[in-house]
Amino acid sequence: MAGRGRRFAARGAPVRWCNLERFLEATTPVVASNCSSKESVNCWRQSDADDPLPFFILGDLWDAFRECSAYGTAVPIVLNGCTDGIVQYYVPNLSAIQLYGRFRRHIGPSRTSARESDSDYCQDTVSEEASDLEHDTSSSTNAFPFQETSESSCSEVSSDDGESHEQLLFEFLETEPPYQREPLADKISSLAKRFPELKTLRSCDLSPTSWISVAWQYY
């Protein structure tokens, strides 16, 4: 495996770094952040603080993987502590993703009306997309855009000033073997045709429960 990489002089690399640290440095995406007031975040906000909330757009995150999806990411590897090493190339694949939205119900005199409003929001969010985004059972992958769940199935976390509820917005689980998977940028473009919000959602629109798994394949 090591013999296929391009050789390089490792003397300029930080001596304290191990190969894992070099890999993380080369493959960690860098995405520009923005700031949003709590009013613009609306019911998705995770805090009532007045400070601006930093966020990034998912489309910018996927763009950060575009070049390495096409050409691979160069990772310098040092062998046996030698001063010379090799450069190996890795391509990112999307292994799995779950996106959860989060909204808060405030406890107070208007609790009943707020509950009805949030219920309508939860159901409308699902119904707007679910009717046009049916799962293709013949596909080799599992993608469930806007999981159609009732309000009672939303994950709930209580707090002193209100109740937080989570809604599964999108789920994808790759089932293809690694050597048959599309590069991450290509896979996202394909999934976004059925779920365009993959490129427009903001990180502040999502619950911390959301997660993404990226596999880096050596070639």
From TrEMBL:
Region (Disordered): 109-160
Database matches in InterPro entries: DUF789
Compositional bias (Low complexity): 148-157
PANTHER family: OS01G0138500 PROTEIN, T15D22.8
Name of the protein this chain belongs to: Uncharacterized protein
Organism: Arundo donax (Giant reed)
Source taxonomy: Eukaryota, Viridiplantae, Streptophyta, Embryophyta, Tracheophyta
